[in-house]
Amino acid sequence: MSDLQALIFDVDGTLADTEANGHRVAFNKAFAEAGLNWHWSVELYGDLLAVTGGKERIFYYIQNYQPQFIAPGGLDEFIVALHRAKNGHYADMVAAGEIPLRPGVKRLLLEAQQAGLRLAIATTTSLENVEALLEHSLDPDAVSWFEIIAAGDVVTAKKPAPDIYHYTLAALNLPAANCLAVEDSMNGLRSALAAGLKTVVTVSDYARNERFSGATLVVDQLGEPGQAMTILAGDANGAAMIDVETLRWVLNDEESPIAERA
Ligand code: XBP
Ligand code: MG
Hints:
Layout: E1 6-9, H1 19-33, H2 42-48, H3 54-65, H4 75-95, H5 105-114, E2 118-123, H6 127-138, E3 148-151, H7 163-172, E4 179-183, H8 186-194, E5 198-202, E6 217-219, E7 231-234, H9 244-251
Parallel strand pairs: 1-2, 1-4, 2-3, 4-5, 5-6
Antiparallel strand pairs: 6-7
Helix pairs in contact: 1-4, 3-4, 4-6
Bound molecules: xylulose-1,5-bisphosphate and magnesium ion (MG).
């Protein structure tokens, strides 16, 4: 029997639906401000999400969609500046309360704290984006709720590589067997699984059609009292929402991981 000691959360798509109405809009604002006629539609952005990390995404976009583009003053510096501007717009949107948390997130985090579980974040997004979201959408003190916030360039190989989860586990000084990851996308799930973590997937908008093979449990959202989650794959022992008791049960569920869905 494994003792659940820590929960490790992804941010984008997991804590909040940050992509279509958040990061995407902020990227487009930064493009316009830089005098670029680039526009990432909701559909195109869904394709671009295959590349994790904002700077990496811009680089991929230039290579594949704007191959003639010549960056003034060097490509790396240009991308870094463009990405910084985008994060500024994103922070403004978060501060304006435009990015609410997904159902059940605050409830679960409070309950986990009360139960004495340790909390950590393992994310591809930049640290300033995480802090803005926690402060404005969760609680002014929410940054301190998390013992470890592993974010952005703290590792070079971003998700789906396992590096960010390895980093987080090392910082927590815990084996994967005593932790659960909470993710929303296939890239995030791959990263957590490759670090040996059992993973609960709370599927985000853009990840609706992904196949979460290897996950332990897949739900449409974490659930609230009066707003039961729908179980998409796996077993939650009859629970209507993801709570600490359910997560303890999930960690010790002997069933094999979810096979690829049709
Ligand atoms: C999230 C991402 C991030 C955000 C933007 O992936 O890929 O790049 O889209 O954040 P995950 P930055 O949820 O799997 O961590 O622009 O700060 O990189
Ligand atoms: Mg995510």
